[in-house]
Structure formats: C-alpha cells, structure tokens
Specification:
By secondary structure, chain A is mostly beta strands. Chain A has strands at residues 5-7, 10-13, 19-24, 31-38, 42-50, 53-56, 65-71, 74-79, 88-95, 105-106, 110-114. Chain A is built from no helices and eleven strands. Chain B has strands at residues 9-13, 18-23, 31-38, 45-50, 55-56, 61-64, 70-75, 84-92, 107-112. Classes of the chains: A mainly beta, B mainly beta. The interface between A and B is medium-sized, with 24 and 21 residues.
Chain lengths: 115, 113
C-alpha cells in the first residue's frame, strides 16, 4: 500500500493567493483528517470526514479555509486568500473502522510558506 | 477529552529501555490512552493504545496504573531511530470524540549512542 498521499509536498505562495492542498487516503479507509502543525500551536485538528461527510470542522480557523471530500479517494483543503500566518505543515490522515483502536495513518505533509 | 501532562524532554542510551511517563488524572472511564510519535519532518505514527490493562505490541509496551491516572510507554531496547517526539493522548471512543486526536506538546526523546 502506498500510504496516504499528499500533494504538493512543498508550496510557496504570496499573500492573497489561493492555495489548494490535496490528499489521497489509504484505499478502504472511510475517515479522513486534516491537521496543521506550527511551532507555536503544535499539531491541531482542522476538520475530519467520515464516509465523505464532514463531521467536525470546529478546528477550521476561519472562513478563508474550506475542505471538501468529493469521493472516498480524494480530499482538498483550500485557503483563499492565504496569509503569512497560514504558513505551516499540513498533514492529512486516514483511518478505517478495522484499524486497531482507530489508528490514524498520516501522510508526509505539505509544507506551506506564504510570503 | 482529558488533558495529559508529559515531561518536555528525556534522554536515553542506545540499547537501554526508554520509559516515558504521562499523567492523565482527569481521565474518564470510557477514555483510552494512545501513544503516537513523530520523527523529525514526518507525520505522526501510531505506537500503542490501551484502556486499563497493560498492552504490548511489536513496538512498545504500555503500562497503565490501576487508578488509570497515569501511564508509561516503554521502548524496551531504544535505538537511534527512536529519537522523536512522543505524544500521549487520551481519547474517547464514542460520540463526537471518536476520531479526534488532541495532541499536546509531547516529550522529545533523544537516544544517544
């Protein structure tokens, strides 16, 4: 299995631009999570989906952030417009009800830099 | 979910056991203790979880006190590749808590040659 796939791995953009991060969960997993990691705030859950439906988006910082999961094999996290404080590593994770204890499998992350 | 407290950092000699403590004094009866680790520049990785009994798998052992207010993750023979940030997380298994992992600051474990 290829594991959770995220793209791009690195993104550098200018303030005000739209940024789209992509995630392909492990095949057969029905839960998908988006996290953000910064030095100041650590690792934070932004939103998670179960069976393609958003269950909890209380961690989404503001209206500039949106996430979609159009099908079981693809999700996007969009930031529009981007700001320098959005610079962080964004992780996507997936899990299956068959995973031991609901183990979450994390992708390699996307390092976002907003200038 | 209950809050956890971990030491900021710990050192361990290669080949020795690494014992990482975690306090979770407000844990409730239906909450599990999870451990994840994050090696530099990688996504977090699941290690082990438990409810009240001690658990062991191919990576580590988890010892939970009888009152469940604290636990210890044991890496029996630490290697340099075990250098990472270790997160202790308490998580419910039902309702809106299901699926949510709340990461604290974790313990930075450094394994020395």
């Amino acid at each position: 299995d290829a594991g959770v796939i995220q793209s791009p791995r690195h993104e550098v953009t200018e303030m005000g631009q739209e940024v789209t991060l992509r995630c392909k969960p492990i095949s057969g997993h029905n839960s998908l999570f988006w996290y953000r990691q910064t030095m100041m705030r650590g690792l934070e859950l932004l939103i998670y989906f179960n069976n393609n439906v958003p269950i909890d988006d209380s961690g989404m910082p503001e209206d500039r952030f949106s996430a979609k999961m159009p099908n079981a094999s693809f999700s996007t996290l969009k930031i529009q417009p981007s700001e320098p404080r959005d610079s962080a590593v964004y992780f996507c994770a997936s899990s299956s009800p068959l995973s031991r204890g609901g183990e979450q499998f994390f992708g390699p992350g996307t390092r976002l830099t907003v200038l | 979910d209950a809050k956890t407290t971990q030491p900021t950092s710990m050192d361990c000699a290669e080949g020795r056991a690494a014992n990482l403590p975690c306090n979770h004094s407000t844990i409730s009866g239906n909450e599990y203790v999870y451990w994840y680790r994050q090696i530099h520049s990688q996504g977090p990785q699941y290690i082990i979880h438990g409810l009240k009994n001690n658990e062991t798998n191919e990576m580590a052992s988890l010892i939970i006190t009888e009152d469940r207010k604290s636990s210890t993750l044991i890496l029996p023979h630490a290697t340099l590749r075990d250098t990472a940030v270790y997160y202790c997380i308490v998580r419910g298994m039902g309702g809106t808590s299901y699926g949510k992992l709340t990461f604290g600051q974790g313990t930075i474990l450094t394994v020395h040659p």
